[in-house]
Amino acid sequence: MLVIFTGPDCYISPNYYPSKQRTGKAVPTWNYSAVHVRGRITYQHDDEEITAFLADLSQHFENQGQEKPWQLSDAPADYIEKLCRAVVGVFIDVEQIEGQFKYSQNKSSEDFAALLEGLQQEGQRQQEVVQYMKRLASKESGLST
Fold this sequence. Notes:
By secondary structure, this protein is an alpha+beta fold. The chain contains five helices and four strands.
């Protein structure tokens, strides 16, 4: 089984780069991150285990800012049982993990800074990429961004 997890990604126009204005030597690209996980797959069909997992999962996310977190017990038991019968748990015994990212780390500091500035004027997708780029820059320079 191969499972692919992706992080923030977006199109990068060469128009952001000051070096493109001077030399014309720039092309469009894409900033992204991805992790490929390979392993053996098994399936979980046990209703009780699936229900317990979904309760834990809901609790985890509901407790992140909900004033009154929703719980599985808030819904009728027969309704939850019916829904859980339609869920199949998937487990992967991980054998290999491979990750890769490209967030313009190959650009000059001038182009990198201009790209950050330009992307900050764009939409939500670009804002997520900006956050990854800032983290990358702070790790490489040892500074907080």
